[in-house]
Amino acid sequence: MESVRVMPRPVAAVCAVVVLALLVVPLLDSRYLIDLFTEIMIYALFALSLNVLIGYSGNVSFGHAAYFAIGGYTCAILLTTYEWGFAPAFAAAVIASALAAGLVAWFCVRLTDIYFAMLTLAFAMVVWGVAFKWRSVTGGDDGFVGVSVPAMLDSRIGFYYFTLAATGLSAAVLWLICHSAFGRCLVAVRENRIRAGFVGINTRLMRWWAFVVAGTFAGVAGAIFGMFHRGMYIESAFWTESATVLIMTLLGGIYSFFGPAIGAATLFVLERLTNEYTEYWPIVLGMILVGILLFLPDGLAGLARKLASYRSRGG
Amino acid sequence: MAQLELRDVHTAYGQSQVLFGVSFSVEPGECVALIGRNGVGKTTTIRSIAGLVAPRRGAIEWLGENITGRPSHRVAKLGIGYVPEERRIFPELTVWENLDIARRETPGGWDEERVFELFPDLRPIQTRLGGVLSGGQQQMLTIARSLMGNPRLLLLDEPSEGLAPRVVESLREQVRSLKDEGLSIVLAEQNLSFVLSLSDRCHIMEKGEIRHSGSTGELRDHPEILEQYLTV
After folding, report:
1. Distance (Å) from the C-alpha of residue B229 to the closest C-alpha of chain A?
2. How far A199 CA sits from the closest chain B CA (Å)?
């Protein structure tokens, strides 16, 4: 038996096709598509990171945007205000997100269920408050604008390929984490904390690590986001951002590794399309959420699995 | 020195007290049975040892160390394996993954190979999800999972409950071979033939207390003791 669960062939084939398709997007020579797919990849990583916490360890966070914002602001401030090089600024942003997640998780994993979720929201609002009030550093509600992006990432296509490489590598690392012995222990904790405890799993420690992994990769997504938009804004730390990534994750399906990435892409495209016809995107978003909760409890990935099993049964 | 010793253990769930001063000990390699009707406190005694419920009073000592109220993962790491009633496996994990999460490697200890030798039925279904196994397979997996933690003492709570007679018979042989290897066992069980064939000593429980303690031989020779406490 392998210590890491092998990716099923159909999933590996779909991944290869998606990566190939993403590689040729810049050849279409459309600024709109390049920007759209850059942002989709960033949010896909953001949603994949949240799913380590929700889908694998069974802890719902209402404040995941905090680590996205910490990564984004740290990278932007170090690049611009302190004129750090790209590599140290990016690494520091990821480390800052990991440390912040570790600190917050230390408190949160002492609670479970709704109390856990509300505490994550409370800490996220503290992060938002700091970004809002610490105007001299973060720019407050005007945002931190004019981020100095390194010359090698200055072109649209260069940044697109950087995003593809960074998010692809991050997704691969997350896959390995989630399908290792650690990931199996997280599933055991999700299934039943008491049962996992008497098997010898330190459930609180496992939940803490899941939180740190999720926060770290949200920081990666946030750092890329800040450079892509050449700025960071307090909305990125607000609870609505946490809700958006949560809906992306639910829409894609929390019991599938790639589900949240599918959810992120679907929601992002739907938002763009909706905004072309009406300004009432929040109403559409609410209807999508109702639809998921009532008809797609396992998300789009669950629906795809059901259709595949229906077809394989010859239905 | 006894391997495990319970002294005057009182355990309650909220306002409802279940154990009223339970005391007994387990010597290395010994199989000690807790018998009694439903609701007399056998499972609560086992749960108190496993760290799933903290006693309000009294002490539980493991190799001379007080482990009263320790969290269950620490108790497991000390070498006490727990096999709960109703075969609590992880249905979303495969058989192999169920074993892997409990793995605590010890030189010469239990690994998949040894576990599959003891439970050969598990070998061909390693990749099957736990949730689709039969009751007997789940019971084997639960015991196998505990063994992967390399315990020195196994807490078995109603292992034969709900299993077909043929499966109970093979389970009896498997538990006996564990005992022959020197593993200590605390067995809470209502199936008297299962208990009498495996245990060295028996404690009969009633209303949260141990009412009678004696060797298994004594109980075999004096069935009236069993009748006195166990018949309705």
Report:
1. 31
2. 6
